[in-house]
Design brief:
2 copies of one chain form a homodimer.
Chain A lengths: L1 H12 L6 H20 L2 H13 L4 H7 L4 H16 L6 H20 L10 H10 L11
Helix pairs in contact in A: 1-2, 1-5, 2-6, 2-7, 5-6, 6-7
Chain lengths: ~140, ~140
């Protein structure tokens, strides 16, 4: 939980540059750095994903770890404002998707951590995704 | 293993249309259909990802399930030709990445299967990724 709070605090301190595509590259880099900070604790990540899978069958726990997680709810509600600061006309669904995508990529990197040749390019995939989103006015107060 | 062979056989039967972006949308649709066919067997997917996580610590088994998997090696070697047929100047790394990304998205959908509001858009994410790849001559004999 502390990880996600730290991530949003770090992003809030970054000043988006004026170049529209440069801003997206800035944001993709920050998101990739966040994934790297998670991947620096591989045992924690293995445990987290293994637990999530094990608990999928146990409904009450499963919800706490996914849909109804206070952590996820908080990050999903903050993510659209984050995207808007970087020039994306973000809907709540866009905010949710960038968080889900980042988690999916972190899973892939966790699963293939011991295989240097199977390292998915988190920054590249995130940047392609960000570039596909609608652009909009950059708001200063997000 | 049968899943992946069927996927490549299905793709081989599809005639890429002439419109360059239309072809990419065709391919994204086929990849999303493949993910859907995996997601139609949620218990198998849960077991697969749980096993992969559990075995991460056990080196010989882990390699068989990821880096050294005969299944993965085969799909990674076939994927670049698949991308080339749809107009992408694909390198081996591009082929590997599209397979890893598809698996990562399938994991996300498996993890959040019971939460209708947490369904990552596999087709949309894959299409953004495909559009970011370099285009090249469409080869007929791939």
């Amino acid at each position: 939980m502390a990880d996600l709070h730290r991530f949003f605090d770090n992003v809030a301190r970054i000043e988006p540059i004026s170049d529209p595509d440069g801003r997206l590259r800035q944001l993709a880099r920050v998101i990739a750095d966040f994934a790297d900070s998670l991947l620096a604790r591989p045992a924690d990540m293995r445990a987290r994903y293994a637990l999530a899978m094990d608990f999928l069958e146990a409904d009450p726990l499963s919800d706490l770890l996914s849909a109804q997680s206070p952590l996820l709810a908080d990050s999903f509600s903050r993510a659209p404002d984050l995207l808007r600061r970087f020039g994306i006309a973000a809907t709540p669904a866009h905010g949710r998707d960038i968080m889900l995508l980042t988690d999916a990529l972190t899973f892939s990197r966790t699963l293939h951590a011991s295989s240097p040749q199977l390292q998915l390019d988190v920054e590249g995939v995130v940047l392609s995704h960000l570039r596909s989103l609608p652009t909009g006015a950059v708001s200063d107060d997000a």
